[in-house]
Amino acid sequence: MAGGMLTKQAVFLSAAYLNDVNDAAAGGVTVSVPSGAPSPAVSQTLPGDRIVLDDISALALSDTTIGTLYGGIYMYGQYTTTTTACVRGGIAFFAQADVGTAYTFYGDAKPAVATPSFIAGIFINVITKGNYGWIQIAGVASVLFDSSVTATTVGSMVSAKVSATVPSTADNGATVSQQTVADLLGVSIQTVAASTISQVALTRSPFSRI
């Protein structure tokens, strides 16, 4: 498996807020020290690292001009895409070939738009293709719903929208089937509106990706 710690109590951030991180290199900028000088005690961030935040810590690490973060688990990795750029609240996917070998998040539905079940988590900000940042994999997340949702009722099952209009978005209250269970994200905790970000309690196992 690629490097990365299961959870870290402290983390090196290249930006003031977690949802501002958009690193051109893994871990952000590396600072060199003069030859012979002791290296600073820095907890470098590696792809696959996870941090656990309570609501207060998440709020403190939120750039609220982008969005408010909530208590949960966040994971660091590299973003890439074939056709679909990521958006805040959109679904991040992993490729089958990356399981256990790389922490790469895709904006494109994997394995396909009709079967969007290789879910890694939720994008908390826009990351430039090829750069590194954080996604949310557990807790209360801000999720973008599709332009067409099955239901708006709070407390409904939330799943990745099958054949969603780009970017990859969520559906609320879809009929339970083998596919929608495979596409499960969690449960809506707010009344849902189409093309809108709403809060979802993520119930998909956050460690199924290990």
**How many structural domains?**
1
The backbone outline, from C-alpha atoms, is globular
Tell me the Rg in angstroms: 17 Å
Tell me the series of helices and strands, N- to C-terminal: EHEEEEEEEHEE
Structural class assignment = mainly beta
- Uncertain parts: none
Distance from first to last alpha carbon: 8 Å
**Largest beta-sheet details:** 10 strands, mixed
Mean pLDDT: 87
How many helices in DSSP terms? 2
- Helix amount, in percent? under 10%
Give a short overview:
The chain has helices at residues 55-60, 178-182, and strands at residues 50-53, 72-80, 91-93, 104-106, 119-123, 132-144, 157-160, 170-172, 184-188, 197-202. With 210 residues, the chain is mostly beta strands.
